[in-house]
């Protein structure tokens, strides 16, 4: 797949600071024609978020700054510099028609303030010194409103921290007490090993996703770099937490640079790698500089090869390709430009150790890596450059398609995951990496949370209730390059059952091979996906979800197992395998179901199976 943007794509060299600066300048250029007459808003499309059009336009203006400011601060050039300066003047002028207004509690304007504050603090020659004294006062007053507004009690607290740190750097009025209070509250979300819950810590309810690297750590490191007391207690703790987090987080990346698609806000795309850039900006060697540089560059190379742009060169809403099916209710057409947080290292000079280092691939953990804080077993099939996570602890129902983004059994750097195409009908379901249950064969329920979840070094165990009188205990057991699933089901009603393996992409069609009636192998140019029943004799079938519902592949197929269960107690089990390699499929299938039976619990022996 290739990009719509000239100059990007898999063949483009991205090896130096100059290469990245040139790429960013090209990606910034299409935004200019979308500015309104006062240059205070950039309207990038007509689809809506839950906030209004004016705020979406402010978002379009502000998020461009995440790329523009480092580019200019590091000596680069862009035609956007002058119009964005004009927008800063007008947007903070209460008498201008394009005034951004007085933000209310939890307003989207508060989310965009850090980028605007940092424009003045990091690139003062472009966004501060040219302002008159009155204009500087307007900007300061508009930014100070963040200290008197309610913020969402999660990563949003950092917006107040960064705005005040930027104002302090400029010598403007700011509120040190508000910063201390916000930083202290953030520490109440700490889980250990550098992980945070994005909000109140609550046992199995913690939300642990990409807001940890591109929210908590990105802003924490940025604050540590901006602070007038860089060796202070809070700053030191933030740096220590980043160092603890780095060896954990690198395991979320394949050697190709692809990151694990999991959780909400995936439309921010390469913001997934912004943590590595923030570490560089803060001068914090969280891993050897060569490894940090390699992780950062390799991630950008992977994304530059994806078809993520609209035909006129704008970042689209979606993930691996444009798709509104994957968006959240808070995504406007401008939201994807939070990805530009990735480019923070461009503010650093060529002489910085990050830029001077020679790239070195990090020593990834081969095999299984336990991460209790996000509730995952990370599994790396190094020979196939495939990383997948067995996940059981998280759920987040307020997010659109939250169950699919947080509560599937497994997530993959190559296969991704899918969301439903509709509410009624099996054909609209998303059975990949999930056990779906239905009373009527039309309305399907999967795991939306877990009444109880445990993560050990050997397996993920979770108990969940899709219906009031149905309890499922699921065990997810790594068996590289695949995994085992065992389900104990107690049901007070008859059930239709549909269980899916990895979703396999294809440009045109898939090849199907039944290795047994209950063992199906699908293959395409994207690799292969296999599911095999291990306990009973559920027939294996080909399932084709709705198009544009997978995060990585516009068209997918899923090998599935089916059965019907009467009321009572039942045990189901299967083996799931997916690989990228294009070899002879029979030769590359590494195991047969019979060879896996010794891996099953002794409790399975002699049990009744459907």
Automatic annotation (TrEMBL):
Name listed for the protein in its UniProt record: DUF2264 domain-containing protein
Lineage of the organism: Bacteria, Thermotogati, Deinococcota, Deinococci, Deinococcales
One Pfam assignment: DUF2264_C
Region called Disordered, residue ranges: 584-610
PANTHER family the record matches: LINALOOL DEHYDRATASE_ISOMERASE DOMAIN-CONTAINING PROTEIN
Domain of life, source organism: Bacteria
Compositional bias (Low complexity): 589-604
DUF2264 domain: residues covered: 16-360, 373-570
